[in-house]
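Intended use. Records like the one below are meant for learning the mapping from a protein sequence to its folded structure. Do not use them to infer anything beyond what is encoded.
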Amino acid sequence: MFTQAIVRTPCQAMIDGITSAGMGRPNYDLALEQHTNYIHALKACELEVTVLPADEEFPDSCFVEDVALLTTDCAVITRPGAFSRRPETKIIRPAIEQFYDDIETITSPGTLDAGDIMMVNDHFYIGLSQRTNQFGANQLKSILVKFGMTSSFVRLNKVLHLKTGVAYLENDNLLACGEFLVHPDLQKFNIIEVPQEESYAANSIWINDTVLMPSGFPKTRALIVAAGYEIIEIECSEFQKLDGGLSCLSLRF
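Structure written out for the chain above:
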């Protein structure tokens, strides 16, 4: 069960954030409204939410998930694959220090985005992607071993981050689409197949027996409900324009 979440208010510079989506620039006012609704949803799942201020130096800084991995025993400050995002680790660290005594760090030549990390109990699937290289993955593996946790690597072929296409919903249920439907390391789970036309909905998040999912994906919604979950739908169109999803917008622990 999670008790805490950390989020950062989107800055006005987010309209110039990194993107490959080809969906146009975000509407900043609408993004703020959607982010506020996201915070309300986290609180509805009984989380205490720490809201960090906007930082205009870093257009992508509302996507706090990528710059830190928070486990039950330690925190890991990452080294993002996008060069422009690496200084974000300095501005997230003070917030992490309020909750963790054991803080580890990924160092050069390693790169690691925590959007590439999926936690399943005390095992961590580490996506090898354009943002997370083998050096970074190996460093994380060593850190996790030190704290009694295990990991394995999942090479990505088509998506930006591991959690772009897969989400663990607890109880052995895995929401997945695309290349992850047939990935051999994931076949032990009960795979809930997201239709390809609704692939964005694969980035949903389980919080204390409720699943937060992006709104507008009725087929995926029906599948998650059929699996026995309560659902909160959240509009996140402006973050989708920046290759971002629901998991990207918070650190949950």
